[in-house]
Design brief:
The protein is rod-shaped and about 80 Å long. The protein has 4 helices and no strands. α2 runs antiparallel to α3 and α2 runs parallel beside α4. The chain is 61% helix and 0% strand. The protein has 2 domains: 38 residues, no CATH class; 62 residues, no CATH class. By secondary structure, it is mostly helical. Bound molecules: zinc ion (ZN). The site of zinc ion has 8 residues, from loops.
Length: 106
């Protein structure tokens, strides 16, 4: 719901200005309120999570892209992106350990 920046009263989206205090309702405020009302899940974070179950590096890359996009757009999916990124790094650690062991065994 859009609220007045001056008096915090709930605003009807059709109003051009707040009927309580007369402050002009800026279109951005209404757009932001609409975005808050129905936040989409960032699709890159979902891709990152899927990749996190397949392998490391792509999940890390997509996870960071998703986090950057979510920071910019305020979309949902931050937890998904963090989980995907962490899983990606865990993959990487496992790969490094396996590689070191394999190299040490030569
Ligand atoms: Zn007001």
């Amino acid at each position: 719901m859009a609220t007045c920046a001056t008096c915090s009263a709930e605003l009807n989206p059709a109003w051009r200005f707040c009927v309580y205090c007369g402050t002009a309702v800026t279109p951005t405020a209404v757009v932001e309120a609409a975005a808050e009302q129905k936040p989409r899940v960032n699709y890159v974070s979902v891709i990152a999570l899927i990749l996190a179950f397949v392998g490391g590096v792509p999940a890390i890359a997509f996870g960071h892209i998703a986090l950057a996009q979510i920071k910019e757009t305020g979309e949902r999916g931050r937890t998904i992106a963090i989980v995907a990124t962490v899983l990606g790094y865990l993959w990487l650690v496992v790969f490094v350990i396996l590689f070191v062991r394999w190299a040490g065994g030569l």
